[in-house]
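Researcher: Here's the sequence for the chain we discussed earlier.
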Amino acid sequence: MTSRPKVLRRPYCRFGVVAATLLWAAGIRADEAAQSPFRTATLAQRQPIVVGTVSDTFPYSYAGPDGQITGFASEIFEAACRAVNLQTTRAAGPAAEVRQRFQNSEFDVLEYQAVSVEPYAEFSVPFLNLEGCIFVRTDGPINRLKDLDGQPFAVLWDRGQVEQLMQQHKISPRYVSTPSQEAMLRAISSGEIAAGFVSQLTELSIAARDHLTNIRMLGRPYAGLDIRLAYAVHAGDSELLGRLNEGMALIHRSGEYDQIYRRNFSQLGSYILSAEDVELYASGGLACAFLLALWGYFHQRKLRRELAVQASVLAEQGALLQALYDNIPMAMTVIEPHGDTPRVVSMNREAAILYSVDLPAKGQPLDALAVSEDIRRLLREATVNRPPFPTVTVSEAALKGGKRFLEVTSVALRPADTAGTDRICVLVEDITDRKRQEAEIARSRRLRAVGELVGGIAHEFNNLLTPVMMKAGEIQVSRPDDDELQQDVAVILTAVQRTAELTRRLLTFGRKVDQRAEAVRVGAIAAGCFDLLRHTTDRRIAWEQRIPPDLPPLYFNATDLNQILLNLLLNARDALMDRLAGSASSQWVPAITIEAAALPPEAFEPPPNPDGRTLLGWQLLTVRDNGLGMPPDVVERIFEPFFTTKDVGKGTGLGLATVWHLVTDAGGQVRVESALGSGSAFFIVLPVWPTQAEAAEGAAPPPPGRSARVLLVEDEVLVARPMRQLLERAGHAVQHYPDGQEAWRHLEGHLGAYDLLIADVNLPGKNGIDLVGRARELNFSGRILMVSGRFTASDLQALTRLRIDHSITKPFNAQQFLQAVNRTLGGIPA
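Model: Thanks. This is the structure I predict for it:
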């Protein structure tokens, strides 16, 4: 009954990329995430990743005979890192020491950890789900759970599950902490402690290796004591968590996970000695006893001891096989063809959970099994076909949780050319989440490609808009008395500014390039979202904004606020579209409303504030719709990643999860109210912090004390020409180069000949960042002004490192360009 293992048994714990990133990240506490030191640098900058490795947890992570760390958890981690090109370096030690050092932020990753609620950590998708049990000494005094009252009971680092079980049965054992699972089992075997809590698979593995034959399970496994093994990262390290989850998903799809699983555990099911061998030995012993009575007597005693040991080993192997069958994370059903009425021989726990049935009695007819018709059909087809070799099919079936995609594998347990009753093992795996993850990965790649395309188009738009704005501004300044001309130029500038704003929105929603907070007004963000959506949706929907004009600004990342409001508005729009598609009343008017109100600081508990700023108050944002509404069970799960009520292919289940993450990460709160037939209301509470003082818009700094010598490096002729003309009219001497490599060859021999270097970021030959970097290496003493149609996050980091004096983003008008030049040259003596 061996089979290809899957990673976890429950649908909500399947592997996922973008995932990943998002299922477990939703549980991060905002206060811990905000203080995480692992968010100050990108994953690429931190490589190699430092991994805390446990050296004393057999068979998952332990030191082998050669001193190297090995084990199932360690091999899975290495394979996942290889799959996503993640470089690592290890620091090994005992479990307790490694976990403490991880809490002290000495490591990026904890390689082996049972999933629990920890404020300092965030867990990957579990790589194994084990059944926890209580084990006692075979010849000890403990025969039932009540006997543990007052007895020494061994636990590891977390005893929460065991304490709940003991409290339910009103038992008070004396808890004893042990450093490892191996030490716990040795202490039980020697009688130092009465019992201990460990997974069944772990106990059988260690007992088989160390020949601990005097340990047994107390009763049967108790419900709710499952142990989920995963990898831990620091709270807030979502980029590393997403990479680990993506790596595990990839090795699962490639089959490498299956190979590692079989390599670590398949040998535990090996058969030691057959019944025929036992009979042969017994016959030989009896023959020898007949010939030599005295020698036979002693030999019989030896055989009896060997038989007792063999019986114990066989029982242990049987228990191990049963444990593997019960705990393997794949639905397994053994069916025996019986004419036209196949019978169920056995079904493991995963199958019972997947089919939502109780474990059937042995020999129960398949037609009497309380499963859905789709499941009954799949099992019957797998039995009737009786494949001579394993066959795999993918089918869609109706389960208790809805329609799911199932991968069905049929395996004949007896070759067709042998006598006896044929049996078929039907292995069923729920691959719905895997198919969704594959679709999400493909969608993520398409979106990245679209984002790059949008960025390139926006850059070209900005290059084209810049000369139009500059020339129109010059015309306005040069002909102030021509009213008709002023009106025409104003129309041109208005159209150009609206085009520039559209380009900025494309960059904002296509990819986030600047993570810095700034003073943003909710009304302006809401109006922009309305403008973006109202023209692309049903015109019957009324859009209403109730935001006071004097509402103070938020000190918040503008892109994050855009994303919060946009996701909520899209959710409201979909609710209205669903109701419009049904039988809506003629008196009903679909509407979406955004409201905002200021609240005092004492309205909610202040969020953590590492910068020492004073909380000014709160802003309550409300997004309402009068759509279909949601039932209570949907409201409870609305913020879960990948949870969606839409059909397959029509929703990712990430929109509201992203809203929850962004709001809580900023120290805010999210609440939802909904009723069927009445619509929904989402309430977002955000803290109001004091903003940094900014210079008044349009106030130009004083011009420099003298004309400057300027080296202008700009490849776009339509942009370079008006820039050069403006500089020369302002009294500056300008030298222009359209190629970065040519400009560098000139500047290399004339470093002291220029007071100001103006360079575009994207240049042929040598880009602007490389040009400035070379100039800084040779101690260029002039000022530097950088120009670009799109500054990415990496561009901003590089320019900060190179200590540029100022930057300006295209498109800009003549006044803005000269202001930027004057700010850059400010302080140069005459």
